[in-house]
Amino acid sequence: MNNEKYSFYLNLINENLSSYVPESLNNQDVISEAMLYSLNIGGKRIRPVLTLEFCNLVCGDYKKALPFACAIEMIHTYSLIHDDLPCMDNDDMRRGQPSNHKKFGEANALLAGDALLTHAFSAVSSANDVSPQSIIKAVSILSECSGVNGMIGGQVLDLKNEGKTVSSDELLTTHTLKTGALIKAACVLGCLAGEADKRQIESAGLYALNLGMAFQVVDDILDVTGDEKTLGKPIGSDSENEKTTFISLYGIDKSYKIAKEYTLRAVDSLSVFDNDITFLKDLAFQLIERKS
Amino acid sequence: MNNEKYSFYLNLINENLSSYVPESLNNQDVISEAMLYSLNIGGKRIRPVLTLEFCNLVCGDYKKALPFACAIEMIHTYSLIHDDLPCMDNDDMRRGQPSNHKKFGEANALLAGDALLTHAFSAVSSANDVSPQSIIKAVSILSECSGVNGMIGGQVLDLKNEGKTVSSDELLTTHTLKTGALIKAACVLGCLAGEADKRQIESAGLYALNLGMAFQVVDDILDVTGDEKTLGKPIGSDSENEKTTFISLYGIDKSYKIAKEYTLRAVDSLSVFDNDITFLKDLAFQLIERKS
Predict the structure, then answer these.
(1) CA distance A271 to chain B (A)
(2) In sequence order, what are the residues at sequence separation of 6 or more whose Cβ sits closer than 8 angstroms to the Cβ of residue B110?
(3) Residues 51-90, chain A: which have Cβ within 8 Å of B?
(4) How does DSSP assign A62-98, residue by residue?
(5) What residue ranges in chain B does DSSP mark as E strands?
(6) Mean pLDDT of B83-105
(7) What is the value of ipTM here, to two decimals?
(8) Cα B112 to Cα A168: distance, rounded to the nearest angstrom
């Protein structure tokens, strides 16, 4: 994602994320440290960038959505910390650095994840430039998309399917929940911050789910064709773990076509917006060409 | 807690709690099952009862606070599930039943805790009979009281102090955060649901913190003097784990006096309320005479 607007949003998010982590008032600093460690370890920040841009698209003022954008990234970060724990994926490294529990111990990592999830909702409730009705709707959407029939549900399916061959339908459901739901929350919360109408909110949701699926297909492709250095993680882990992926179901060429179809569908859904959709369109196309 | 009104509230909570656990739409039923298992395993339900009664005290209609009351119990339940995990207290039993991870495995227990925390905020956002401003305030208070400078912070201090002798100040801080903060959220959310004024909200907070401390002192006393059968858990674990408690600092008789002082302070703080405070007064006194 190589353009000026993206960098501008990215910097804004990086500059503001830490302000939503409370200072420890009673000698329990390790928890804030652990939260900040994983928040500040970097990443593409695609989700919060989407939140800011959808708000911008709807009302011309991305700043209104900043608390929502940071909340989304906090939820994403908590999910990575908990996913890395020994009882889940047991990953020692994340983005080239020791994972949270390797750095702070399992108990603190568990609690840092809990705290990021908890304070994500403080962040949402602190959005001063958004109407009370939209804040409440944002709390509701964020919890639904992160919950049993969203991100957590996807993680449950992923665990359940480990080592099993799953059907293409099951693979789609798992990714829709595990990856798509939070991206949907990101886009919809941006719309809510901009006081979008119902049709705009629905279209943002469609864009998100298609973008999320394209993103996941490319992830599967990169696990086969990627460069370990550029990716920052070992390749070939999916086939090693005998995971059903788009590649194992369709092969590389067909998978690339599928990713492109999802991208076109994502872009199509933006037609209801009157303003300039170039950024969101370019972002979708850049995501399928990414190398990491 | 042996009276008709308490039983009425308790039944109302038990009848409604499950409705805030979403049905699994995609074959990930185990997560809902795991959430319901710990929610329905019982308990005194003191926190949500306080939420309902404070709402009743302020506006005469406890029903308005039901979504908030259930949210509080969901947060309490998530904290118990995560506390029992092997990387935390590693407890195999909870209320005489296998703890969540013993029943559903560590990964599902972790996710069930995450999901209860997540959907607690859905519950808050669903409070139809409460003003938007009070719902947003409730989200804010609930996350602050459950977060870094609340319940999670208390858990961090508790882990940090394991096996160490701590000062009475540190003991007070730990309990204020670990136990007091969520009881405070329970009382304050009840006030918010009833659209209380600032003075009432402050008094409810004071009642809660003093009640929470009395509760904790009695917990320490029961760990020495209690009956294992009535308690449903082994006694003597504090001294076995060389934990600093009110007993190790002050002995039994002085600790009982301290619990009584906190209770009197709790009751005193209710003087700003014009309506009948008998229930909250009796509840406070019954809590220090409890045997389990």
Answers:
(1) 30
(2) A82, A85, A87, A88, A110, B82, B85, B101
(3) 78, 82, 85-88
(4) GGGGHHHHHHHHHHHHHHHHHHHSTTTT--SEETTEE
(5) 93-94, 97-98
(6) 94
(7) 0.97
(8) 26
What does the CA dihedral A74, A78, A83, A84 come to, rounded to 10 degrees?
Answer: 100
Tell me the pLDDT band of B276, cut-offs 50, 70 and 90. very high
Residues of B in contact with A147 (CB under 8 A): 22, 115, 118-119, 122
B148–chain A Cβ distance below 8 A for any pair: yes
Three-point CA angle B38, B150, B40, nearest 5°: 10
Contact A28 B146 (CB under 8 A): no
Phi, psi torsion values for A89, nearest 5 degrees:
-85, -10
Helices marked H in chain A: 4-17, 29-39, 46-59, 66-84, 100-104, 106-125, 132-146, 151-160, 168-175, 181-193, 198-225, 228-231, 237-240, 246-268, 278-289
- Chain B: residue nearest A141 by CA? B122
Residues of B in contact with A85 (CB under 8 A): 87, 110
DSSP strand pairing (A93-94 vs B93-94): unpaired
To test the contact with chain A by mutation, choose from B75, B114, B142 the residue with the greatest count of A C-beta atoms within 10 A, namely B114
B98 beta partners: B93
SS3 B282: helix
Give B60-78 pLDDT, tens digit per residue.
Answer: 999 999 999 999 999 999 9
Q: Is B32 exposed, middle or buried (0-12, 13-18, 19+ CB in 10 A)?
A: buried
B103-157 pLDDT, tens digit per residue, is 999 999 999 999 999 999 999 999 999 999 999 999 999 999 999 999 999 999 9
Q: Which of B209, B224, B125 is nearest to A137 (CA)?
A: B125
Q: What is the pLDDT of residue A1?
A: 62
A152: helix, strand or coil: helix
Chain B within 8 Å of A38 (Cβ-Cβ)? no
B87 to chain A, minimum CA–CA distance in Å?
A: 5
**Span B216-274, pLDDT tens digits:** 999 999 999 988 777 767 777 777 777 899 999 999 999 999 999 999 999 999 999 99
pLDDT of B5 over the 90 cut: yes
Which positions 85-114 of A are in contact with B (Cβ < 8 Å)? 85-88, 105-108, 110-111, 113-114
| Calpha distance A215→A176 (Å, rounded) | 11
Global confidence as pTM: 0.97
Is B157 in Cβ contact with A27 (below 8 Å)?
yes
Nearest-by-Cβ selection for B153 from A28, A173, A177: A28
Q: Which of the pair, A162 or B196, is modelled with greater confidence?
A: B196
The single residue listed with the structure tokens 């009535």 is B230
Point out the residues of chain A with pLDDT beneath 70. 1-2, 232
With beta carbons under 8 A apart, name residues in chain A contacting B163: none
